[in-house]
Amino acid sequence: MRALASVDLAAIERNIGLLAAAAPSAQLCAVVKGDGYGHGATEVAAAAIRAGATWLAVATAPEARELRAEGLELPVLVMGALTDAELKIAVAAKADVVAWSEYFLTGLSALGGGRVHIKLDTGMGRLGTRDVELASRLAARAEDEPSLDLVGLMTHFATADEIGDRFFSSQLEAFREWSDRIVATTPGVIRHAANSAALLRDDASHFDLVRPGVACYGLDPFGDDPAAQGLEPALRLESYVARAERSDAGQSSGYGRSFIAQAPTVIATVPIGYADGWRRGFSNNGEVLIGGRRFAVVGNVSMDNITVDLGADGGGVEPGDRVTLIGADGAERISSEELARLAGTINYEIVTAISARVERRYVGSEVEGR
Fold this sequence. Notes:
The protein has 370 residues and is of the alpha/beta class.
């Protein structure tokens, strides 16, 4: 197989168990948007439910529809913006939706109504309304209008992953102050704000429901080391050595000749590239694991292949040998966090970039051997 992403569902279950234990007073909503952060939304959703999640969250209406098509009946929250056409899909899927305008509530009522959460923008500067009075009026309307069911009040943190910053605390206080007034007169409405970083950072952010995403997959929401948070990375990315060929001094590898051998060496070709999600930014930047050893990626990453310098003696590598791009091989490990630092991005982007061309294989829990 040219490229394979193995997903350990048992690791995901253990991660969710750890997160639930860290927020014992709150329900847990597992965020499975972006095809489960590249891990597979429906498979991750099933694992999350086995681990005790009582809610699921996505970003788009078609994502909610996909979960419903798999027979999942627990609450599904669509957190993203919705066009009129997308709102119809969400309503048909019996999904909860998020409102921050009168127009949206009117559209929801016209479709027969549904379950709604009001979003206050406390500082993310993205979705939601910054107008506290408007947010309160929307909550009152959703509570009073027979076709609407006010389920939740929510916000989203901009800097929860930046330990020690003060903006997180100011957002938390703004949300608490607003939502306290509403829950005082609207018993039963739930409050939720915490993403993975907030959940692990501050118990005060837990409220009634927590919404972990990246931590469910064993990625560090603080971008450092998952093990420091007790998390287990669930995804492993592999390919194989398709060719191992000697390269003399002066010979090059890849488009643009960005690597030219300075001395005789052996170059391995590995059939994975940027169309698979292995970023071009790893050109002459980063390493892979073969036989428990690190070898440098050299030359430009192309759409379908990368080249690796095995050294003058070839490193004992043969065609057909397994290549690990994310994960452990012996005592060595390449993490999504390491790759993110090399690429100047975040671990979220590393895993969500892995394309549908890479086959997913699920292991652990109830799907062992699938």
